[in-house]
Amino acid sequence: MLDLLPSRHGAVLVCGHRGHIVDGHENTRPALDLAAAHGASMCEIDLRMTADRRLVVFHDDILDDASTGTGLISHLPYAEVARSRTRSRHGLPIEGQPIALFEDILAHCRTLGLGMIVEVKDRFADTAYLEQVAASIRAADMAGAVLISSFDYVTLREMKAIAPELRSMGINYHRLADPAGAARSAAMDVMNTDYPQFAPDIARALHEAGVAVSHYLPRPDHFARRRAYGDDYHARLATILQGGLVDMIVCDDVAWATGFVRDCGLTVARADLATGAAHV
Question: Which residues lie in coiled coils (predicted)?
Fold first, then answer.
C-alpha cells in the first residue's frame, strides 16, 4: 500500500497533475508515460461519465475546450465521445489522443508503476456512480495505490462508506480555521491545499491528526517572474519540505518537481504496485 506519510522518513510523493502536461495533452496515456519517465510517484486524473454510464478520463464536463468534439459528456454515448481527440489548451502542436476509458488508464498506471489520484467530477442524486468507480478500482487491483479526490467533502464521506478500503484526498483552496476538523468530517486521509493558501500551520495541524499533507503548485514559470521581483516562494517551499511538513507535491511539470525534491536533499517516494510495498 502506498505510504501517504513519507515525510516521516525524508521523502516526498510527486504527483503529475493530469500527468506530465507541460509537454503534452492532459489526462492521456502519453502524459502518464512522460510522468513515469520523469520519476513521478503518482498521477492525478479526472473522471466523467457518459450517457451510457461509461467512465472516461477527461477534466471538463464539455468536450469543446480540450478536444475536437462538442457537447456535454453526460449527454453523449461513449461511442460519440470516443470519436473525439484531445486538443491542447495551450496551443501545443501535438497529435490528439483518444479520450480513454477509466479501466484502461487504471491498467496502464499499474503497468507503469504509478499510483493514482482519481478526482470524481460529476455529481449524481444516488451513489451508483461512486459504486461503479470503486468497482473499477477493485477490478484493477489498484485499491492500495489510489486516492479518491474531490472538492466535495460529502462525496468523499459517501465514498468512504461505500468502499472503506479506498483512501481519499480533500481538495482545499483556503487557509482553514480547523483543517483537522474538516478532514475528520469527511474521513479523509490526505488534504491538499493549493498555492498560495498553503501555510505551515495547516500542515502541522493535519500531521498532528494523522492526515497526510499535499500541496498543489502552479507551473515553475509562474514563480520565475515573481522571483525577479524579490518574492522567492521556492526558497520558502524548500524549507517547508526539509522541515517534513509536506508529503506530496502536485504539479503540471513532473521533471521540475522531482528535481526540486532532490535538490532539497530529499527522496522521491515511489510505490511497488506488484507487491503493494512502498519504497523510496
Answer: none
